[in-house]
UniProtKB/TrEMBL annotation:
Rhodanese domain mapped to chain residues: 16-134, 166-269
Keyword annotations: Repeat, Transferase
Name assigned to this protein: Sulfurtransferase
CDD domains from the UniProt entry: TST_Repeat_1, TST_Repeat_2
Pfam family, one: Rhodanese
GO terms, molecular function: transferase activity
Signal sequence coordinates: none
Transferase found in the keyword field: yes
EC numbers for this chain: 2.8.1.-
Matching InterPro entries: Rhodanese-like_dom, Rhodanese-like_dom_sf, Thiosulphate_STrfase_CS, TST/MPST-like
Length: 272
């Protein structure tokens, strides 16, 4: 697997290469104002990417809140972002990569080999002296990238139910334990899953933890197949990225809890 992260200093160096495509993926649950955040300030040359309409298919109880988009539609979007064949891509947000990792995962899954997450996101960029642009950018020249699905591992609900390796639940601990459930119909977790909140991948400054710390966090998982889910398959991609940093090739369950909890036939566990 190619490098997962890029630092603000490294990004500044590679932006001289006009082939680098820069995607602004600002999104957070309960915050619909990503487009306005982009207009208020973004890395020069970045294209805004919409989580709900470009990085996911329409939600449904049977597929979850953020199903994987159709590959034809994803390719159409990627070309509208200006991505050409073999272009390197850098994705960022303002939340430690929690949303940008979805774009990282999707584009890697669709066959783009060089996609990296800006470590520290927009705050990391500005803290390192990076400039911001405001307003809109000129529309990029349409790209010609060819996408195909299946370049990263995916599992469905049936595979999650019979998973024989390590199944990680990337949601906050209180949601895993079933103490609260703010959005999905049932509280708890998939039986047998291990709680591993995505937020613990980050340090106090919103950067990915040092690889040694991540290696310690995921110690013991290298000998077994690993799969990850979250609420709707977004922050689980961040967990897949953190695992990739330390050389663990994990599968993603895209439907995640939003799909599982909507199926009354699926069992639910609570507690730690």
């Amino acid at each position: 697997m190619s490098a997962v992260l890029i630092s603000p200093v490294e990004l500044r160096e590679v932006l001289s290469d006009k082939r680098v495509r820069l995607l602004d993926v600002r999104w957070a649950l309960g915050d619909p104002d990503g487009p306005q955040h982009y207009l208020n300030g973004h890395i020069p040359g970045a294209v805004f990417v919409d989580m709900e309409t470009e990085l996911a298919a329409p939600p449904s109880p049977t597929r979850g809140r953020h199903p994987l988009p159709d590959i034809v539609q994803l390719q159409k979007c990627a070309r509208s972002w200006g991505i050409c064949q073999d272009d390197p891509v850098v994705v960022y947000d303002a939340t430690g990569g929690m949303a940008a990792a979805r774009a990282w995962w999707l584009l890697r899954w669709a066959g783009i080999a060089d996609v990296r997450i800006l470590d520290g996101g927009l705050p990391g960029w500005t803290n390192a002296g990076g400039e911001l642009a405001t307003g809109t950018e000129p529309d990029p020249e349409p790209g010609d990238v060819e996408l195909s699905p299946g370049h990263l591992k995916v599992i469905d609900a049936d595979a999650a139910a019979r998973w024989r390796g390590v199944l990680l639940d990337a949601r906050a601990g209180e949601r895993y334990r079933g103490e609260v459930e703010p959005i999905d119909p049932r509280a708890g977790h998939i039986p047998g899953a291990i709680s591993a909140p995505t937020a613990e991948n980050l340090d106090a400054n919103g950067h990915f933890r040092d690889p040694a710390e991540l290696r310690d966090r995921f110690a013991g998982f290298t000998a077994e197949p690993v799969a990850v889910y979250c609420g709707s398959g977004v922050t689980a991609a961040h967990q897949v990225a953190a695992l990739a940093v330390v050389g663990i090739d994990a599968a993603l369950y895209p439907g995640s809890w939003s799909q599982w909890s909507n199926d009354p036939k699926r069992p639910v566990a609570t507690g730690s």
